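Hallway conversation turned thread

IA: we were arguing at lunch whether anyone had actually written out Spondin domain-containing protein end to end. Turns out nobody had. So, for the record, here is the sequence (226 residues) and right after it the structure tokens. Reply here if something looks off.
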Amino acid sequence: MEHIKKLSLMLFAICLSPSLFAESYGSHHREAVYEVTVTNLTKGIAFTPLLAATHRPEMQLFTLGEPSSDNIANVAEGGDISGLKDELDSSSRVANTTSTDGLLTNGQSVTFEISSSRRFSRISLISMLLPTNDTMVSLRAKKLPRRRGQTVHYNMRAYDAGSEANDELCVNIPGPVCGGNPFSAPDDSDEGYSYPSPGIHGEADLAQSLYDWNGPVAKVKIKRIY
């Protein structure tokens, strides 16, 4: 009789284990949704549409001190996020991407939602600063909040893509202020690598008093909704 009881318990455990496994798997792979708010902290700079991606910890949009990819250069020089979005959407290291519409002007905020899952625990954002030659604002692989209802705050800094000379001439700067050419051919005066942006120097068409910045150019609030 004792042997029969033990056998019955074993069979019950075997029958129960698949449901436990399924529950455990679901809790570890359940999609999480985040509300992201970006605020422009500059005096006179506008941001082109932002591209956001949730991804694995090892992924970076760009690496400081190394040449920017063509897709990163397109964002930094012309605010064109289409190629980079396609690249990220096809990557196994990326969970989801989303983008905003229109320009985000100084002092304004934009809010959007993006989803992710357990293995994709980081978020990155990128946009072009206008008016600049090839400067971008980026949040670089920061941790997403883990718990429902939790909120995290980050600062976003400006980076130079190093793909276009910083001549500050309107003929080489797109957007409502300058209306110039968004892209330029490679030149010996290009830095050739990405680095923290030194801001606007006021050497040509851009007044330093109007467009320069010091420190972070944006702040980000990320809240896990569910």
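OS: looked through it. Confidence is low (pLDDT under 50) at residues 3-28.
IA: good, adding that to the notes. The chain is about 20% helix and 30% strand.
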